[in-house]
């Protein structure tokens, strides 16, 4: 009953997130050098990025584990962590100090992947329960 599309998306999203993290970190460094980035606002933007990276590890692990073992609980926890990651992603999309077009593009792709992944997780949980 494991979902192959979910497993593939979890893998691809893991690879994309590494790129996303490095690109967003590079853009924050770039913005802090090029623009007059207020020092008191640089720390929250970096904290959100690093908190998102910390959430990504258990989110992906629980997604992989729950799908492969056909267990609802790890997939449900992964789904809950996905909600937290979406909130942090929306912060980086809308409320960080400076938002470049590259930020919009990176966050839109990540939010789309989170949405598709969440739908597949819900379908997998429904299949495991029945």
From TrEMBL:
Subcellular localization: Cell projection, Cilium; Membrane
Record's GO cellular component terms: ciliary transition zone; membrane
Keyword terms: Cell projection, Membrane, Transmembrane, Transmembrane helix
Transmembrane segments: 6-30, 42-61, 73-94, 106-129
A Pfam family assignment: Transmemb_17
Primary location class: other
PANTHER family: GEO07735P1-RELATED-RELATED (PTHR13531), TRANSMEMBRANE PROTEIN 80 (PTHR13531:SF8)
A Gene Ontology biological process term: non-motile cilium assembly
InterPro entries the UniProt entry points to: Uncharacterised_TM-17
Listed name of the protein: TMM80 protein
Topology versus the membrane: Multi-pass membrane protein
